[in-house]
Specification:
Layout (H helix, E strand, L loop, with lengths): L1 H11 L42 E3 L1 E4 L3 E7 L15 H26 L8 H12 L1 H14 L3 H17 L4 H4 L1 H17 L12 E5 L4 H6 L5 E6 L7 H6 L6 E3 L13 E5 L4 E4 L3 H25 L12 E6 L5 H5 L5 E6 L13 H15 L4 E4 L26 H7 L1 H14 L5 E5 L5 H20 L9 E6 L2 H5 L1 H4 L5 E4 L1 H8 L18 H16 L3 E4 L10 H7 L3 E4 L4 H8 L4 H11 L5 H11 L3
Parallel strand pairs: 3-4, 4-5, 5-6, 9-10, 9-16, 10-11, 11-12, 12-13, 13-14, 14-15, 15-16
Antiparallel strand pairs: 1-8, 2-6, 3-7, 7-8
The chain binds phosphoenolpyruvate (PEP) and magnesium ion (MG).
The site of phosphoenolpyruvate has 11 residues, from strand 10 and helix 18.
Amino acid sequence: EAVFTSIDSLIRDNFGEAVVAATRPEPAGKAPQPAEPRAPLAPSAPSGEERPDGELPGLAIAPGFALGPLHHVRRNLPEINPVGITETDAEISRFEKALSDAEAGIRTSLASAGDRISEYDRRIFDAHISYLHDPEITETVEGRIADERICAEAVWSQVVGKLARTYQALDDPLLKARADDVIDVGQRVLQCLTGNKGTAVDGAEPSVLAFDILRPSDVLSLDERTVLGICAGVGGKTSHAAILASALSIPVVLAVGEALADVGEGQQVLRDGAVARVIVAPDAKTILAIARDRKLSQTHVARAEAVRALPAETADGHKVRVAANMASPDELGAIVGSGAQEVGLLRTEFLFMHRDTAPDEEEQYQIYRTIVSGLKGKALTVRTADIGGDKPVPYMDRPPEINPNLGWRGLRYSLDVAPLFETQLAAILRASAHGPVRIMFPLVSTLDEVKAAREQVRATMNGLRARNIPFDESVEVGIMIEVPAAAEMADLLAPEVDFFSIGTNDLTQYVMAADRANAKVQNLFDPFNPAVLRMVDRSIRAAHDAGIWIGMCGAMAGDPVAAPILIGLGLDEFSMTPAGVAEFKLALKGLTLPDCRGLAGEVLELTSAKSVRERSAHFLGG
Ligand code: PEP
Ligand code: MG
């Protein structure tokens, strides 16, 4: 359970990389039914942190600056009382009509939202519609209307309330957050049953909207042209409302706490773009200071925007590739618009999480193919499942391990569970018929593993040929360098593959013997440690000696302070969170290859991560 919770938080934190929304350019509610879980999904402030009066710290969902009157969005819900009925058939028909009206309402809102809601985000509402058709829910409601002879509103709100509480009681934060979706759908149906118009989310004048809790339907129905910003008392990054809100072109901050409810209607508030907080009744000095910071950051953002779509090169014309890391198809839109030349790492674990069985070949193929098509010619590097270690999959029959990070994970697991591996390879290869695809193996430790994996690729290709299924015969196959043994033996591994990609997250953990998820050893878990950098250096040299290219897809690749060192060491590709791409390209503009080489040579001789960081920051003029 503990490990499962940590991997979930790892996924929610985008594997330690910045959230996609973080550097998006800044653009010019009676008693609720069904019963709502009220506990905040995320803490409203880091514990122990003191904030001045009038500041409500929260969770940044979409960046930006907003100044204006606060408008509380009150949930306009009727009180539901169980009313006895005599005509049960008519009541069931009324309920069924409400379900189809609710579905029609979702579809109409989606149609009028246009491209404000991406194709992927629309699937959130497919899930809402599926609740309306879920026989377990609808048959329970209809059965109870018939048996208990009480009105549909009362039965529906009890059934949906119970389901929401079941989700809320789960430990898995992602499933827990689904309670909001259930409540959202529940309220929509109640509105249809009662003829209630629902919540009018927009204020009479441009305002910062305050919600008790933001729901997906709220995001769907608001008009961002007339809304200055959004804040909510509770909320978490994993809620569907947060995912939808992060794509809005207005600032959004959630989890600001219960104090939000006490801020007066019409009170002037400021949503600070730099820090996730809402400032109530800001004074002129605060507004000016924040506006000045905003101007500086806008200038910086504008400079980064100007290079987003350009090739990544240093001031003296040394070119590298900048790629994006992807952990779910939901990120496709962000990646396509990020300026990344390709996807350097698709973490495929999302395919296996939060379900009861592994996806079959067809399901995986359809997902890879959708991504490949969406990338429109940009290469997709698919990492085979890195199951185990910090990425457990509960339904896979695996014995408990005392030390999962040193256990049955990554490529060693795939090689042992042949059907799983073959299925994934076949699906990836099939997707390669639709655009450039690479296959990459995680957590490689030995040459024999690489040979066995390549053999499996060949066997899977033969299988596809026998089935007359097309694939790219020249698909590139590479490995991740994330185990010290692989870095040490890189010269022997390189001739066996087409490319390397350094996973500094795991490499650091294994080189430093410091668990990446253990806060107590975070001082050791630092890729700037010269011991890690020497492994990086050795791997780059081995790759180039063997004539193959080498990238990096661990979090270090997107760190502008690491950029001059890695450029100097000769790294060919930097794969990072899409939000970091423009900023990274801008950082390259201040570098020259000979200077970077000099810096790289120097830091390899330093003795600590701290001294390397300081030296590089000094080099960058910090
Ligand atoms: C890494 O280890 O650096 C890496 C990119 O893989 P993950 O973070 O998915 O383990
Ligand atoms: Mg890894």
